[in-house]
Amino acid sequence: MKRIFKIFSIHFQDVITDRSRSFVWVLSSIAIPLIMILFWKDVTANSSESLSGWIFRDFASYYLLLTVTASFVIAHVEEVVAKTDIKQGELVNYILKPFSYYWMKFYQETPYRLFQGSLGVIVFFLVYTFFSDFLSFTNSFFIMVLSLILIVLGYMICFSFKTVLGLIAFWLIDIGGIFQFLEVVLVVFGGFIISITLFNPMLEKIVYFTPFPYMVYFPVLALIGKLSLSDISKIMLLQLIWLIIFFFTYKILWKTGLKKFTAVGQ
Amino acid sequence: MNTISVEHLTKYYQVHQKEPGLLGSFKSLVSRKYYDAKAVDDISFEIEEGELVGFIGPNGAGKTTTLKCLSGLLYPTGGTVSVLGYKPFERKTKFLKQIALVMGQKNQLWWDLPAMESFTLNKEIYEIPDLQFKKTLDELTELLDIKDVLNVQVRKLSLGQRMKCELIAALIHSPRVLFLDEPTIGLDVVMQKKLRDFIKEYNKRFKATIILTSHYMEDVRQLCERVIIIDHGKILYDGKLDDIVRKYAPYKFLSVVLDKEVKKEKLEKLGKIKEYDFPKVVIEVKRDDTKKVAAKLLEDFPVDDINIEEPDIEDIIRDVFSKESNAQKK
């Protein structure tokens, strides 16, 4: 444990040194949710009924918590894995060390998530201070605790997914297009544009077969009180299943990919 | 058991061969032709503990590929490799804790943090006890004379200082086998000498087995008693550096300064004239005839000064490569 803590703390120092990047990221990530809140304010103002059970307070809380939770959960490792480590050959520094590459990347990325997430929490409390009348959250402490577990599992899924994505650079020369495409899929299927419950029912079912809603969307739904205990336990099970799927996928891709790695900067 | 044992090592890369032009590009969308580029082609050698061996060869010879197979970075296509009794490509933890690979153009230090943080990180990764870490760090910083910059951000260090810190980061776990791939590349002559002195001292003090690749003959000349010459993936020579000269250059040069001008034809009777620019003349003679010819020169010609010189080892190796290259073409 002491060893892991020391490795983690060294990486955390690097995050604090590069703090300006985190500040800029938080500021830039507020813009779109703000626009969506204003959009739904207008939509719900013109409608006397709720939209699939959603009122303005739900939308406002949803987008605010989406921003905060995403800053904790959405990992950005795929480019480093694919471009810096595999393509430029920096993987050499990792594979000859007696430490798992997956966990080393995890300890490099997690401090960024924690630091940016904490900035997101500050933004949340600032907004809550002035606009609490327009926000609504679960009043169950137990569900709030479970939501935190969903967030942690959501981060693990996102991190594992992005790491696996990065590993395809072992086989493909140009991966930028794939990353961009999957980023769009993540934004849409992750509920960043609108809640998945407002999708066409057929599309909604398809989305639940992908890992994307289990990253940020369901943890946020739990926090705003849209999920029952039974729903949360099912989602947690599905998150664990996704983690197992990514665990095995990583192992296979890593083993086969290393056989192709030439360590020159491909 | 030898520290390093290589038998019939082969490494091929699959390379896509595209026909030139736009038509070739379209064709490659549908069907691709591949060929096997032989980077290392059936090489064998053994290295004992504590040896410092130089690997020399032109660009693309297979030096770095061999080093990567020995360190476990690459899977061999064929043959067997054993380092400290382990198969390198299995990358077992115990094996990784005993080796280090330093590549001149790659770095592992954290750019925005002082070098000391990278050393501490490696300490935890390699699970080095505190006392051993401190002892090794003190020894290495003393050898490299780098104590005063350990707490400076790596981005603010000079190239030479950074290279020294890279070495410390690579050696902090006291590896028994060290692979150095062009460690002096890009460094000035003063820094190159310091690094050579360090490598020599490290080899002597810690009895580490070291394999070094370099384009600078001075690195090999200063450090390695034994060299392995490799070209087109094959070993051309494996033995003492001094023996290369005897094997590939059965001649010496007599460098003469004349008092009075002498006709070139008279000197040609003694040997092959390499240079003739009065008052300096350079004559190539068979190794066994050197003393006899020198005596004849002093007796029969107005000689002011005479030197017996070995051929330059770089020239010899260059000749070896070009002969092999011509043989390959045939």
What are the key terms here?
heterodimer; A: 266 residues; mainly alpha; 11 helices; globular; B: 330 residues; alpha/beta; six-stranded mixed β-sheet; four-stranded antiparallel β-sheet; 12 helices
What does this structure look like?
The complex is a heterodimer of chains A (266) and B (330). By secondary structure, chain A is mostly helical. In chain A, 73% of the residues lie in helices and 0% in strands. The longest helix of chain A has 32 residues, at 229-260. Chain A is globular. The mean pLDDT of chain A is 88. With 330 residues, chain B is α/β, with parallel strands linked by helices. Chain B is 39% helix and 29% strand. The interface between A and B is medium-sized, with 22 and 28 residues.
Helix content of chain A: over 70%
- Into which percentage range does the β-strand content of chain A fall? under 5%
In one word, what is the shape of chain B? globular
List low-pLDDT spans of chain A: none
Order of helical and strand elements of chain A: HHHHHHHHHHH
Compute the CA-based radius of gyration of chain A: 20 Å
Low-confidence stretches of chain B: none
What characterizes the major β-sheet of chain B?
A: 6 strands, mixed
Number of strands of chain A: 0
Specify the number of helices of chain B: 12
Mean pLDDT of chain A: 88
Assembly type of the chains comes to: heterodimer
Strand content of chain B: 25-35%
Helix content of chain B: 25-40%
